[in-house]
Design brief:
With 291 residues, the chain is α/β, with parallel strands linked by helices. It is 35% helix and 21% strand. It folds into 2 domains: 35-113 and 188-208 and 219-290, Rossmann fold; 120-186, no CATH class. It has helices at residues 7-17, 82-90, 129-139, 145-155, 171-183, 201-218, 229-235, 269-289; strands at residues 27-28, 40-49, 59-67, 71-75, 97-102, 105-106, 114-117, 189-193, 221-226, 238-243, 248-254. The strands form 2 sheets. Strands 1-11-10-4-9-8-7 form a 7-stranded mixed β-sheet, with helices on both faces. It has a 4-stranded antiparallel β-sheet with strand order 3-2-5-6, covered by helices on one side. It binds adenosine-5'-triphosphate. It comes from Hyphomicrobium facile.
């Protein structure tokens, strides 16, 4: 996809060229999922995390392999351990059992290979948008840090606000600068913890399309935590549904909706069917948290 092409134009192209045949087939992950054939980027093997003296583990015996360039959404009811699992992948949290491999090497702490984006952006308020994005490359001593930042702001559609302060930008713009900053050191992995959770519905929807556009251009491996079932299906190649007490993987769903995707797929029969299946699983898990 050409750089600088807006999601709206991509959508127009997609509509014009989209196949008119039957709706794409979606299926529950089978014993030999397609992602298993990709080169593993991140592997969790029997990961368990306990907090303090709690009787129940926050995350228990979770094994998950994520391929290079794959987009995985972690979904599940509140408290099922999504953020904890993401923090384990980021090297912020050490499991009491199990191990995490990043490109085949044990992960022992935060890695430059992982960019992290949280729900609340963490831009430096005293730096312009451009300097925020250039911060990581400058720390690495890259002489072209400014050019890298300009290119990334261009990719997220914010070249025109490069010299503005974070406080003067909307929530959606701040989050786009945050994504550009997380990508500035070209990490092969992007870990996102409810990055659009604080945005209004319209901005959120645009940001989802924007993220897919960025992912299409740069192809990082993405792990995306969300409560939102539609968001997970719309974005991901695979949706991993977690269960609570203890936090474990309940079920995985492969999402075979063709890309590029636009908001129109939300009305697709296959999309609606997959949403119903995932909602059923989540409802059962969410009920357990009220017992
Ligand atoms: N720092 C901590 N100290 C103690 N307990 C914690 C800590 N962080 C998380 N927990 C507990 O671990 C469990 C999983 O929490 P986590 O935040 O990972 O879940 P989550 O699925 O991301 O929840 P939410 O969707 O509400 O953000 C919860 O029971 C939570 O109370």
């Amino acid at each position: 996809m050409a750089r600088g092409v807006s999601p709206i134009h991509q959508r127009a192209d997609y509509i014009e060229t989209a196949p008119t045949g039957p709706a794409p087939h979606l299926h529950v992950v089978d014993p030999v999922p397609s992602h298993a054939q990709q080169k593993p980027r991140l592997s969790l093997d029997g990961v368990t995390v306990n907090f303090g003296a709690r009787a129940v583990s926050a995350v228990q015996d979770v094994s998950l392999t994520i391929g290079a360039g794959e987009f995985v959404a972690l979904l599940g009811p509140s408290g099922c351990g999504k953020s904890t699992l993401l923090n384990v992948m980021a090297g912020f949290c050490t499991p009491v059992q199990g191990r995490v491999l990043l490109d085949g090497e044990p992960l022992t702490g935060p890695s430059a290979k992982c960019g992290v984006v949280f729900q609340k952006h963490s831009l430096f308020p005293w730096m312009t948008a451009l300097d925020n994005v250039a911060f990581g490359p400058r720390r690495l001593g890259l002489t072209n840090a400014r050019q890298i930042a300009q290119d990334l702001l261009d990719i997220v559609g914010l070249a025109h606000v490069a010299n503005e302060w974070p406080a003067s930008l909307s929530g959606g713009m701040q989050q786009r600068v945050g994504i550009a900053r997380a990508l500035a050191t070209r990490p092969p992995v992007l870990l996102m913890d409810e990055p659009f959770g604080a945005l209004d519905a319209q901005t959120r929807s645009l940001m989802q399309e924007e993220l897919l556009s960025i992912w299409d251009k740069l192809r990082p491996t993405v792990v995306f935590v969300t409560h939102d079932i539609e968001e997970a299906i719309f974005l991901a190649d695979r949706v991993v549904v977690m269960q609570t007490y203890p936090g474990r993987i309940a079920r995985e769903f492969a999402i075979d909706i063709p890309r590029p995707r636009s908001a129109e797929v939300l009305n697709d029969h296959a999309f609606i069917e997959r949403r119903r299946e995932i909602t059923d699983v989540i409802r059962v898990e969410a009920r357990k948290t009220f017992r």
